[in-house]
Amino acid sequence: MLVAILGGFAAAVFFATATLLSSRSSRLISPSSVLGWVMITGLIVLLPFLAVSGPPDLDRGDVGWLLIAGGGNVAGLLLAYSALRIGKVGVVAPIVSTEGAIAAALSILAGESLPVAVGLLLPVIALGVALAATGGEDTESPGSPTVGARGQLLFAAAAAACFGASLFATAHASADLPIAWVLLPARLIGVVGVAAPLALRGRLQLTRHATPLVVAGGLCEVLGFASFALGSRDGVAVAAVLASQFAGLAAVAAYLLFRERLTYVQIAGVVVIAVSVASLTAVRT
User: Which of 93, 115, 141, 211 has the fewest CB atoms lying closer than 10 Å?
Assistant: First the structure.
């Protein structure tokens, strides 16, 4: 279970960083362009690892899990980028972070058994995530308050559902396949289905200021899913819920970097997360 804890926490750090980067890049260029460049970057990073590992033996079940993992990842990212374009990190991140709870619930429904202590701590961590990233006032986008507030909620909630299914499928696929091949479908779908059509229509945007943000975001997405895939081999539910810590980390970082207001409820959530994670680590080691 220690591998699940470390993998989940590492994924949270990378996902939080990717969230912060995309919250800036999606306001410089369109969300679809951000997604396209993130996927191009990720595919380039994966190519050497794909060459080294060689083609895997795939059965129909593997292909199904890979398609769900890849499609859910791409759809979730596009929805999350759209939400971050019009909303605050501290509002969008908590909703998206329920992906971990969704994936954990799916794994438990699928039959994964957990020790009682771990089972009790997981919902506490999930509660801490929700509290830590609960948005304060002023959550509406300027110029179109109602549309902005409703839009970011709808986009973020849909992203959480897509990510939850993607994480669950990623965990299943990574049990039998090399990590690089598990990460390939999303990047391939993103490049072929998003980046290429945008480029052919002359709508794949990129600016000097957005370039380092989308490149770093692509790297963090790959590293985050790789960390989760490794951790999920030791426990899907634990890795998924810990990965959702990215919401609390992103909320704190957004306060420090972007001066987004952090409420007392959010501070309490961060404390709950820290104590729960320390307790979970102690229980499992």
Answer: 115
